[in-house]
Write a structure and sequence with these properties.
alpha+beta, five-stranded mixed beta sheet, single chain, 26 strands, about 550 residues
C-alpha cells in the first residue's frame, strides 16, 4: 500500500548527521511502543505513545494504532540526542499485520481447540462402545457358545461380565461429562465470536518516524482519535452535624478504539475539540421592490433549475455519509454537558488507570471538596403533609459539568438527582424527608356569594391553614410554601391576607408562590394561614387552573 508522507523536515541536515554516524550493516529500529498518557474529551481523546530508540537508529515504527486516528493531529518529538524526520502513515487490514494479532482471536482458537478435543474424545468413546457391543453379539451368535460357557470357569465369567459392565458405565459417564464440558466451552465462545464479528474487517494504522539518533533516547508520538468519551457524575454526602455538604467528583470513561489503555496517566477535560472554532456570521439582510408577476415566475423557474443541479451533490454526500455511518462500528455515546466558561477544566487521575478497548465502562474518583451549606426544612402542606431536608450550596471554584448525582445522608443512600450549577445560585439539594418534623394541613374553607352594586359581581373566599411541629431536640430553619391565586385578567381581582406575614410572595421569581420562613425552636409548633378573596363579573366564567 502506498505510504502517505505527512511532514518533511530538513532532510539535508539528517543526511549530514547520518553520514557522521558509524556505519552499520542494518540500521537499528526501536522496541515496541507503549501508551504513556491519554487526555479524554467528550467524544475524542489525545493519546501519547513513547518508544525507546537505540543509538544509531534510523527509524521507529509505531504499530497497531487505531485506523480512525486523525492523521492531521500526528506530532512526534524526541529526546535531545534524537532528531526527528518525516512521518509516514499506512493503514491496512488487521489480518495483514502480523504484529497486531488480536488476543481475542487467540482466545477463540484456544476454545475451538478444546471443543475439537472434546469431540474427538467423544467419538473415541462411541467407537469403544460400538466395539463392546460387537464383541458381545459375536459371542452370543457363536454356534458353540453354550459349550464354551459350560467349560469356562465360573469366576472368569463373572470377572468378564463385571469388566464389561464397568467399562460401559465409565464410557457413558465420561460421554455425559464431555457433553457438559462442550456446552460450557460453547457458552464461552459465543460472546467472543459475536465480538469478533463486530470487529470484523477492522483496520489498523502503522506510523513510521524517520530519525537520526546520536545516542539512545526516546521518541514520543501524539495523535487524536474519535470515539472515546467521559461523563461526569457526583456523590453528595450530608452530615447534619457536620460543616457542610461533601461533593465527590466521579467520571465514567469508556472507549473502543481498538487499543487498550493499560496503566496510563489519564486526564479528563471539559474542552470540546470537535466544536467549531469560529462563530457563524449573520446572513446578508437585503431589501428590494417586488418584481412583476411575469418576472417573478421566470425567476422562480430559473431558481428551481439551479437548485436541482446544485442539490444533487449534496444528496450524494448525505448518502455517502449514511453509508459510512452504517459501516462504522457502534461507538459508546455520551451526552456530556459542560458549563459555558472561557476555559476548559482538566481532571488528572491521581493513579494510573486501565481502560480496555472493549467499551467497558470504568468509574473513576476525581477527588472531593466540602462545600458550606445552609440547612433548611421545607414543607408544602397543600401538596404533601411532609417536610424535606434541603441543603443550599453555592458553586465551588472550577468548572463543574452537569451530571447525575447520588445523595446520601448520615451515611445512607436517600436517592438520586442531578447537579447543575448553571442554575441561579444558591443550588438546593434535597436529602429526603425529615420524619421528626410533623406537618398538618387543615381542610380548605370556601365560601361563595355575590358582591358589588346590586350583586353584580361573583365572589369567593378561600382560607387555608397549616401547622408545623419541630420534634427535634435542636432548632430548625423552616420554610413553608403555598400557592396564592394570580389574576391574568384585569376584570378579576384578588385580595390576600396572610398570618404571619410571608417573607416573599414571588418565591423563586414565580408570582403567587408564597414563602414563610422562620426559625422554629425544638419542640415548638408554628401555624400559618392564607385567606384569598376573589371577585369577577357575575356574567363571566372563571377559568381556574391549579
Amino acid at each position: 500500500m502506498p505510504m502517505r508522507l505527512l511532514r518533511f523536515p530538513a532532510l539535508a541536515a539528517l543526511a549530514s548527521l547520518a553520514a557522521s554516524l558509524p556505519a552499520a550493516a542494518a540500521a537499528p529500529e526501536s522496541a515496541a511502543s507503549r501508551i504513556t498518557r491519554v487526555t479524554v474529551y467528550p467524544g475524542a481523546a489525545v493519546v501519547e505513545r513513547a518508544a525507546p530508540v537505540a543509538a544509531g537508529a534510523r527509524r521507529v515504527v509505531f504499530e497497531c494504532l487505531p485506523a480512525k486516528l486523525d492523521e492531521q493531529s500526528l506530532t512526534a518529538s524526541a529526546s535531545a540526542a534524537v532528531r526527528v524526520g518525516e512521518i509516514s502513515v499506512q493503514t491496512l487490514p488487521r489480518e495483514q499485520a502480523a504484529a497486531c494479532a488480536s488476543p481475542l482471536q487467540e482466545r477463540i482458537r484456544e476454545l475451538q481447540d478444546k471443543i475439537a478435543a472434546a469431540d474427538a474424545e467423544k467419538e473415541a468413546l462411541d467407537l469403544s462402545a460400538e466395539y463392546l457391543k460387537a464383541v458381545i453379539k459375536a459371542v452370543q451368535a457363536a454356534p458353540d457358545g453354550g459349550e464354551r460357557a459350560t467349560a469356562t470357569n465360573a469366576s472368569a465369567i463373572t470377572a468378564t461380565a463385571e469388566a464389561l459392565r464397568k467399562s460401559g458405565q465409565d464410557n457413558a459417564l465420561r460421554a455425559l461429562q464431555l457433553d457438559r464440558r462442550k456446552e460450557d466451552l460453547q457458552r464461552q465462545l459465543k460472546p467472543l465470536l459475536a465480538e469478533s464479528r463486530r470487529l470484523g474487517g477492522s483496520r489498523v494504522t502503522t506510523v513510521t518516524v524517520t530519525l537520526a539518533a546520536e545516542k539512545a533516547g526516546e521518541v514520543r508520538l501524539s495523535y487524536q482519535v474519535r470515539g472515546p468519551g467521559w461523563q461526569p457524575g457526583y456523590r453528595a454526602a450530608l452530615d447534619p452535624a457536620g460543616p457542610g455538604v461533601k461533593l465527590e467528583r466521579l467520571a465514567l470513561v469508556a472507549q473502543d478504539t481498538g487499543e487498550d489503555w493499560q496503566d496510563v496517566a489519564l486526564t479528563l477535560s471539559t474542552g470540546q475539540p470537535g466544536r467549531a472554532t469560529q462563530a457563524e456570521l449573520p446572513r446578508p439582510w437585503t431589501l428590494d421592490i417586488s418584481q412583476p408577476e411575469l418576472e417573478r415566475a421566470r425567476s422562480a423557474s430559473f431558481s428551481d433549475r439551479s437548485y436541482s443541479i446544485a442539490a444533487a451533490p449534496a444528496v450524494m454526500s448525505q448518502e455517502a455519509s449514511a453509508e459510512e455511518a452504517d459501516s462504522a462500528p457502534e461507538m459508546p455515546r455520551f451526552e456530556v454537558e459542560t458549563t459555558d466558561r472561557a476555559y476548559a477544566t482538566e481532571f488528572r487521575a491521581p493513579q494510573r488507570i486501565t481502560v480496555p478497548a472493549s467499551g467497558e465502562r470504568v468509574t473513576l474518583t476525581l477527588g472531593s471538596v466540602t462545600v458550606p451549606a445552609r440547612l433548611i426544612t421545607r414543607a408544602a402542606p397543600a401538596v404533601e403533609e411532609a417536610a424535606y431536608l434541603i441543603a443550599e450550596i453555592t458553586p465551588p471554584d472550577g468548572i463543574w459539568p452537569a451530571g447525575p448525582m447520588q445523595l446520601t445522608r448520615d451515611g445512607a443512600l436517600v436517592g438520586s438527582g442531578r447537579l447543575d450549577f448553571s442554575q441561579p445560585a444558591p443550588i438546593a439539594l434535597s436529602f429526603g424527608p425529615d420524619e421528626q418534623v410533623s406537618v398538618k394541613a387543615e381542610a380548605a374553607q370556601d365560601r361563595s356569594g355575590t358582591a358589588g352594586f346590586m350583586g353584580s359581581k361573583g365572589e369567593r373566599k378561600t382560607r387555608r391553614a397549616f401547622s408545623v411541629q419541630n420534634r427535634r431536640k435542636t432548632p430548625i430553619e423552616l420554610q413553608v410554601i403555598d400557592a396564592a391565586p394570580v389574576s391574568k385578567n384585569e376584570r378579576i381581582t384578588v385580595q390576600s391576607a396572610y398570618t404571619p406575614k410571608p417573607a416573599d410572595t414571588a418565591f423563586l421569581k414565580q408570582p403567587g408562590l408564597i414563602l414563610w420562613q422562620q426559625s422554629l425552636a425544638a419542640g415548638a409548633t408554628a401555624s400559618f394561614s392564607a385567606e384569598h378573596t376573589i371577585q369577577w363579573p357575575k356574567d363571566a366564567q372563571i377559568d381556574e387552573r391549579q
